[in-house]
Design a protein that fits this description.
This protein is of the alpha/beta class and 545 residues long. It has 22 helices and 14 strands. The strands form 5 sheets. The chain has a 4-stranded mixed sheet, covered by helices on one side. It has a 3-stranded antiparallel sheet with strand order 5-6-9. Helix 1 runs antiparallel to helix 5, helix 8 packs across helix 9 and helix 18 packs antiparallel against helix 19. Bound molecules: glutamic acid (GLU). Glutamic acid binds next to strand 10.
Length: 545
């Protein structure tokens, strides 16, 4: 038996299958030409972030626009970072945003022909390919301890050399079979390293679906394939999994660009067809005039649960991310305001590869637009569902009279220049509070230019002349009359021109009424509010004021 084969048996005697077995078990997918197979591969850390969703949207669109397959793989090779129930967390977070997987990990099992979809359950598969690499002389066990590696690093640093395990530094590279055998019999732990034939000075071309053709240096490091517990590193697991799961497009964050040479080298060495890599830009935000990465510690908006808790409509987040992802999305939306979002044709070509800017103000604008396009009856349902979970008390009030609540959701939305009052459910909860007696309160101050006695006089006359049957202009004419009678300017610009001749203007007079009726200096149309809350409530509020 040749030495490599002998070594392979020594290390992986328990592996009896051949790679061919898996190649057959997971055949090329019978999908139509051009259909994309994509995935997300989150680590089960318990934190699902915006980047996960961002990449998921790209993968989902590529697959589902082309009649392909989109799946979920749980990358749990790092047991230390794992949190219980994390897979379920990912699934429900994605589900909330309308991201559906065709196959992959489920809460506690699997769905699909290409599984298992949890990396730790695939140990035997990785080891089968690792065995093949050892047989071919392309991998070897390394017994260097943490301390030895640290000392090596120190020395490399002092000599100003590249860090890592390569060339003359790769001490275990040339251990003889007998040396290895002795160490193993001695119970020494080891990792399995790739025997790189690469040279830093060589360049390799890699096609990236977002960035175009990249030129990267060849990998020359003997990187780790399997850790001492036989579990693969990300690099090895990625290559084996995306090959066997027949992924066509690997959509992942740009933090993986640095190790791309390793992945390419593995694909090529193993004789696998390379996937199309799509490295997405890191999500950035503006912070005091400078761009920086979104941070888990500083920016709550990085966590996906933020959107659920704040009560943003999931499709608003999706819609906003599409504006960030594809430069032509906004234009498309302007031309097709009512089209379902899936009608938009997402393309990799329209993606920018410089840092993607997440602008929360812009996001809120998009959210307001999205809610404006949503019929009141749908808003009612979504809002009520959110309230049930986050504010049951207000939920009871809000759902007492569906007709009434739908009416208040619609205030000002059908005007020529429609109001965009609603941004999120949390904000809506605050915004709509004045429509209900239980939650109405005076929040803002009365206008300064109106004295207390004038205010009383305004309210008295307002009640005297108020007639529910008045239309909006008749109603306003009465306010104008009160304004003039009490020595305020009917036209605000007259007051501006001659501030000494008036106590104030019609805006002060209506502001006094507005605060009394809504508790705020800023609100939708007062006449409409009177129509909605009804005469009794209107009179009660003014009288109390
Ligand atoms: N587990 C990797 C991560 O969370 C996935 C990268 C990939 O999609 O290949 O970054």
């Amino acid at each position: 038996m040749n030495k490599n084969k002998e070594l392979a048996e020594l290390l992986f005697g328990h592996i009896t299958k051949q790679p061919e077995y898996y190649e057959e078990k997971y055949p090329k997918r019978g999908l139509p030409e051009g259909a994309a197979v994509t995935r997300i591969g989150p680590s089960p850390t318990g934190f699902v972030h915006l980047g996960n969703l961002y990449n998921a949207i790209i993968g989902e669109r590529l697959a589902h626009q082309s009649g392909g397959t989109f799946f979920l793989r749980i990358e749990d090779t790092d047991a230390k970072r794992e949190v219980e129930g994390a897979a379920q967390l990912v699934i429900s977070a994605m589900d909330f945003f309308g991201i559906r997987f065709d196959e992959g990990a489920t809460a506690d099992s699997d769905n699909g022909e290409y599984g298992p979809y949890r990396q730790r359950l695939r140990k035997e598969i990785y080891q089968c390919y690792a065995k093949k690499l050892v047989e071919e002389g392309m991998a070897y066990p390394c017994f260097c301890t943490e301390d030895e590696l640290a000392a090596m690093r120190e020395e490399q640093m002092s000599k100003k050399l590249n860090f890592g395990y390569y060339g003359e530094w790769a001490k275990c590279r040339d251990l003889s079979f007998d040396e290895i055998k002795a160490k193993i019999e001695n119970g020494e732990p080891y990792v399995l390293r790739f025997r790189s034939q690469g040279d830093e000075k060589n360049h390799v071309e890699v096609f990236d679906g977002i960035r175009g053709t990249l030129k990267v240096s060849e990998n020359y490091q003997d990187f780790v394939l399997l850790k001492s517990d036989g579990i693969p590193t990300y690099h090895f697991a990625h290559v084996i999994d995306d090959h066997l799961m027949r992924t066509t497009h690997v959509v992942r964050g740009e933090e993986w660009l640095a190790t791309l040479p390793i992945h390419i080298q593995l694909f090529d060495t193993l004789g696998f067809e390379r996937p199309i890599y799509c490295h997405t830009a890191v999500l950035m935000k503006m912070d005091g005039g400078t761009k920086r990465k979104l941070s888990k510690r500083k920016d709550p908006e990085l966590g996906l649960d933020y959107y659920r808790k704040e009560g943003y409509a999931p499709r608003a987040v999706w819609e906003y991310l599409l504006t960030v992802l594809n430069s032509n999305f906004e234009e498309w939306r302007a031309a097709n305001p009512d089209a379902p979002i899936d009608d938009f044709k997402f393309t990799l070509e329209k993606m920018s590869n410089s840092g993607a800017l997440f602008d929360i103000m812009k996001f809120e604008d998009v959210s307001r637009e999205v809610l404006l396009r949503t019929p009141a009856s749908e808003i009612y349902d979504e809002f009520a569902e959110w309230l049930r979970e986050y504010d049951p008390e207000f939920c009871e009030i809000f759902t007492r009279d569906r007709e009434y609540s739908e009416k208040i959701l619609d205030v000002g939305r059908h005007a020529a220049r429609p109001r965009k009052d609603l941004t999120s459910w949390k904000q809506a909860r605050q915004f709509l509070s004045f429509y209900f007696p239980e939650t109405f309160e005076i929040e803002d101050a009365y206008p300064e230019r109106v004295s207390e006695s004038d205010r009383k006089e305004i309210f008295r006359r307002y009640l005297d002349t108020f007639d529910m049957g008045d239309d909006s202009s008749e109603w306003f004419q009465k306010i104008r009359d009160i304004t003039a009678d009490l020595g305020y300017a009917v036209k605000p610009k007259d007051f501006k021109k001659n501030p000494d001749m008036y106590k104030g203007s019609v805006s002060d007079v209506s502001a006094a009424i507005r605060v009394a009726l809504t508790g705020r200096t800023n609100s939708p149309d007062l006449w409409e509010i009177c129509q909605i809350i009804g005469e009794d409530e209107m009179r009660a509020r003014i009288e109390r004021a």
